[in-house]
Design goal:
The protein contains 11 helices and 31 strands. It is α+β, with helices and mostly antiparallel strands. α3 crosses α4 and α6 packs antiparallel against α7.
Length: 613
Amino acid sequence: MRLGVVCGVLAVLLAGAVAPAAAAPAASEPVHDYAKAIRETVWVDLGRDGDGDGRSDRVAADIIRPGDTAARVPVIMDASPYYSCCGRGNESELKSYDSAGKPVKFPLFYDNYFVPRGYAVVLVDLAGTNRSAGCADVGGPSDVDSARMVIDWLNGRATGYSAKTGGSAVTAGWTTGNVGMIGKSYDGTIANGVAATGVAGLKTIVPISAISSWYDYYRSDGATFGFNPDGLARTVEARNSGQNCSAQNQALAAGATANGDYGPLWAARDYAASARNVRASVLLSHGVNDLNVKTIHFGQWWAGLAVEKKIWLAQTGHVDPFDYRRAGWVDLLHRWFDHYLLGIDNGVQNGPQASVERQPDQWADQSAYPAAGAVATTLRPGASGTLGTSPASGTASFTDNPSAGEDTWVTNPGSAALTYSTGALPSDVQVSGTPSITVTATPSTSSARLSALLVDLGAATIRNFAGSGEGIKTGTSENCWGSSTTGDDACYRITSADVKKVNYTILSRGWADLANYASLSQERPLTPGTAYTMTFRLASTDHIVPRGHALALIIGGTDGSFLSGPAQPGRVTLDLARTSASVPLAGVVPAAATHPAATGGAFVPSAGRADLR
């Protein structure tokens, strides 16, 4: 035995006989050469023929993975319909390919940042979009299977091919099979839908401003927002490979009934109803002023989850956290994926469950969402315009005016809406969770819409969520997040908060068709002069009404900012003794108070959009 070896053995014996184990990594590091990454496309068989061409549909999965290691790697996946028609991110990036069809541009920073750290990134074209066969079914089985079957392929349970038709079978021996799905809007919605299937191998999802029930994107408790899923399908199919999707689009149009009833088409796209099937952890982000994917989506999804989860709530509209809290978001994603996909014990799952933007760029962590101290509190409108916890009596009426909207109701309601207020609050009150309202209403005609708002009456500086950037401004300088190559750089324009001074803030909204008072599945004819009782939800939120401000409840008919009006708008009378709001509150609301008039400075939000980017 050589002297060096003897001395080494002796040293170990003197130290206690066992050499210390290597320390576990605290974080993945950018040790892989991005320029040497493998870029390829695999077409995964869905086992269905959505476009009716007589062949099983195959979806394109564009893959980028480290090329300088034999070790198996986990996968970050973004499944989207927007890679050729509309673009991803604040800069609307599209996929690009070289002359041989090999992927060059992978939209967003995920590949630039995570591939050097030992991850693969897989961007899936949903069926019927870009290079995938089939047809889009807007959140239905084909959309969900477009991603689910790729996860199955990554775990050896489905077949992938080297070409869209024909070709040879391809396996994924390079991956551990651990998958994390991420995406904003439609993309995050697909992550929700796939997670709700409980598919094995999906370890975590990061839904950003995502839908949890497509019914609640197009309808609200029987009321309609005036657009339908077949329009979105035609948009995302516009640059597919030429397949004819008219039959699928007609089925979407027929299933989305104009009367706002909840039917089979919507049930097949209701992921919140299956939230208990989710086995993946969830890192969720949403803007509390998102009027596109309205906040009821995150509230009902969050409430149904029984997994490790965290949430970020911004003052923005429909905005990615990469564009309102960039450095913090990238750091959190890095730790989140390291923990759930690489198994690094970094503690990211511990600590505060929620982070909420209280003022532009001012964030507060809280132990839970809804806030730990929030209690469902019954607030009752009084005949004199008060809002408090005391029982009320009497009646009050409004005349439906579909040409008026919520901001008119706040500043100058006239006869179109009823306003009830707590008056100036003696201390801060936090609204945290999903409110609801129960009304007993007597219509003067055979059709009636109902709308309700919770409003913070008081001056504030907030993000300008109604502006073109929905709360952000995009500059001209850039910062970079990862490695770059020709055709795929890691640099993005720097954003900042777009702010506005207001005299009131609408913190929650809800809408309903009174004809659905007994069932969302089947509206019933209304008899003029007959009282009907209906409960409907308002939007999920987390908002502090400061001391000195007032919390107001406004009730009206058709909110023209969002809804289609009824066939016969008329007068609606409320029985105040049987009308109340259930509001999750932390803090004390007076039993009754005098309503202060709202002061000008109307802030007009954009109406809901049929655009999920």
